[in-house]
């Protein structure tokens, strides 16, 4: 997918700031939720009715066992024709769901392989992971940069997808940015692939941390991380992915996200080297209160740093020795301007420039409008502010204002490409777009307080 700058769509923003600055270019990219993107997950008849308190699994199992071989073969043929191309190894999923339902049952040993698969199919349902929304992206350099023309960068984008029941998951997309700053997304995936969770962790009902592995033959942009533990049963929300540069020269990826259990929230840390094997662990400490922790890409003064919003309305900097426990945050920016008077927060991990740490921020103003701003912090002392924008960098315009939560622009992380900041952003908690920001005039505006 290729798109030119959206120069003709600078309709008035909701905060009354008028047209975009000349060095901000919105592209025509638009990622909308696709209801055909589905996963196959366990379905227990009766349990979808919260008031019943019981499952009808035993009765369903008995009915399927009573079917003769011809009927079983006929149903499996029809099911395979209708669903196989939508899923990764559907027969293996049916076998897994059969084993889950019939674990410890005498039925398991007496049934044919075809009967087992059909039983598994009856205890399987499709779930459209992005039937409601696809938004709040972050962008990092892909771990594989081989085979590209000079000046081109391959990227990985994380996205928050929301489906039935307002359950959020993490999805991935890939693409390139060339020497002329043209953004191209790879073709969208035709199927969604879930990871395998370590057996001992999957069996623990109290687990908050886990390790997962995606099938080796799955493409990166097919992979979906749905909630895995009780702490995140209602959502894996707003992953802020960053490429970390370690003191020994090694690199890895880390993504903080909000785990939502339907009542309360906590912050988890997702870590990976290759987006195949990942680990998730809970974060602790006063700096990890509330949501929106965003880790700096390298250590400063021998410690990891992160943007924190522990007081729920200000931007602060917290430090950590191990990326897990975060110390008491130091406030560096409080709401001052009208467009941020309700609260401030970050829009992803800081980006290192020669003039300071560039932090994209979000501000909430009147009529619950969300705007994207920017802050510049000292490279060696990130608790010292070098500059800040007094007016928004980006506000919702035109049809960006319409969606599940109106009048919102929001990002979970941008990527520097040469002297251009590639800024993917969610619009009104519904869809995803891309803007290109010239870094040099942005830095001048920050230092000049414009």
From TrEMBL:
GO terms for MF: hydrolase activity
Claim: Glycosyltransferase is one of the keywords in the record: yes
Q: Which Pfam families did the record assign?
A: Glyco_hydro_130 (PF04041)
Which keywords accompany this UniProt record?
Glycosyltransferase, Hydrolase, Transferase
- Kindly give the CDD domains that the UniProt entry links to this protein: GH130
- Known InterPro entries for this protein? Glyco_hydro_beta-prop_sf (IPR023296), Mannoside_phosphorylase (IPR007184)
- Gene3D superfamilies for the chain: Glycosyl hydrolase domain, family 43
| This protein's record includes keyword Transmembrane | no
Family, per entry: Belongs to the glycosyl hydrolase 130 family.
How is this protein named in the record? Glycoside hydrolase family 130 protein
Instruction: Please name the source species.
Output: Cellulomonas xiejunii
């Amino acid at each position: 997918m290729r798109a030119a700058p959206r120069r003709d769509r600078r309709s008035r923003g909701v905060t009354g700031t008028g047209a975009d600055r000349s060095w901000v270019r919105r592209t025509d990219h638009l990622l909308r939720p696709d209801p055909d993107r589905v996963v196959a997950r366990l379905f227990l008849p009766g349990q979808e009715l919260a008031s019943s308190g019981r499952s009808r699994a035993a009765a369903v199992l008995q009915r399927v066992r009573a079917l003769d071989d011809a009927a079983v073969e006929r149903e499996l043929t029809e099911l395979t024709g209708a669903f196989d191309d939508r899923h990764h190894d559907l027969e293996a999923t049916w076998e897994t769901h059969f084993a889950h339902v019939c674990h410890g049952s005498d039925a398991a040993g007496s049934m044919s392989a075809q009967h087992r698969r059909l039983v598994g199919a009856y205890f399987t349902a499709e779930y459209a992971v992005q039937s409601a929304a696809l938004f709040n992206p972050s962008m990092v350099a892909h771990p594989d940069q081989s085979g590209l023309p000079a000046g081109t960068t391959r990227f990985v984008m994380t996205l928050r997808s929301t489906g039935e029941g307002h359950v959020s998951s993490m999805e991935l997309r890939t693409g390139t940015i060339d020497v002329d700053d043209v953004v191209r997304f790879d073709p969208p995936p035709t199927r969604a692939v879930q990871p395998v969770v370590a057996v001992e962790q999957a069996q623990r009902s109290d687990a908050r941390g886990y390790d997962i592995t995606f099938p080796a033959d799955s493409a990166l942009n097919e992979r979906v991380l749905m909630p895995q533990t009780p702490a995140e049963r209602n959502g894996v929300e707003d992953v802020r992915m960053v490429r970390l540069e370690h003191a020994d020269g090694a690199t890895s990826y880390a993504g903080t996200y909000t785990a939502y259990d339907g009542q309360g929230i906590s912050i988890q840390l997702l870590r990976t080297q290759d987006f195949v094997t990942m680990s998730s662990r809970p974060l602790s400490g006063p700096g990890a209160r509330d949501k929106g922790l965003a880790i700096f890409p390298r250590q400063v003064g021998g410690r990891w740093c992160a943007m924190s919003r522990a007081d729920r309305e200000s931007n602060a900097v917290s430090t950590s020795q191990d990326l897990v426990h975060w110390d008491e945050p130091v406030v560096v920016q409080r709401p001052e301007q009208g467009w941020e008077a309700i609260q401030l927060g970050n829009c992803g991990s800081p980006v290192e420039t020669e003039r300071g740490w560039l932090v994209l921020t979000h501000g909430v103003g009147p009529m619950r409008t969300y705007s994207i701003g920017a802050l510049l912090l000292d490279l060696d002392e990130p608790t010292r502010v070098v500059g800040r924008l007094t007016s928004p960098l980006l506000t919702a315009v035109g049809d960006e204002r319409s969606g599940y939560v109106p009048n919102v622009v929001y990002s979970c992380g941008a990527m520097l490409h040469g002297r251009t900041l590639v800024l993917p952003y969610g619009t009104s908690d519904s869809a995803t777009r891309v803007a290109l920001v010239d870094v040099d005039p942005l830095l001048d505006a920050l230092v000049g307080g414009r």
